[in-house]
Amino acid sequence: MKYEQENSIELFIIKIKTKMQKYYSYLIVVGMFLSTIFTSCNKDEDVIDPGIMQMSTKVVGEVTIALDGTGLITIDWGDGPAKVTETLSFDTYVEFSHNYSTPNIRTIRIYGDNIVGLNCSNNQLTSLDVSRNVALTGLYCFDNQLTSLDISKNSMLFHLGCGGNQLTSLDMTKNVALNSLQCGNNQLTSLDLSKNIALVGLSCWKNQLTSLDMSNNTILIGLNCYSNQLSATELDALFGSLHSNAITGETANYISIYDNPGTTTCNPSIATDRGWTVVIER
Hints:
This protein is 21% helix and 26% strand. The N terminus is likely disordered.
């Protein structure tokens, strides 16, 4: 009886060990499977590396991009293995073109360590990501289909041209070096320029601005804010926020205000007394 009990216990232990071995084998297989998945994911991440700048387009036909900077750059056009590689020389924009034969959405990726200028205008872009290029000083993306533009990481940006898009907001509080801004023909309802003290030229025409304050922009020389929603009261407030200018004549600072609700009833003398030329007609 004792032997039978001991034998029964031994068989029980053997069964447990067998099950544990199967369990550990199962864990090893699962671990290998998960490792394969993670490795595959990492490879996929390498494949979709966003590069220093990327953009999406749905254009059929030719896309043209111009780059400025130094050193080796690579452009992946997003429709196959073909890529373009070029060495840039500083202060000279180099144009690159590519043709798409179908209306598929393509993602263009640009690689390079010293790219300071990008012109990607008129390419039917639906998105643009320049957040990884902190060295960017010039960005021109006119006449696309952008609904948003994040330039919060581009603190060295000097020139920005983003007119002719569908932007409803534009945050430039991090772009303290900005010298010129062209954001006309968008859907902007407000514009905070209080941090952009280096701003010299501003074109914000044909938006939906109801107010504009230039109090902190003490070196501004030109302002186009026509075709907005500025009332007479807001135009007078804008005139009062302009800095005083001692230069007169043809070189005087100017502000264009035509085609606003308050154009004909505002008081331009507030601006002219400060040395500004007020343009109230086309």
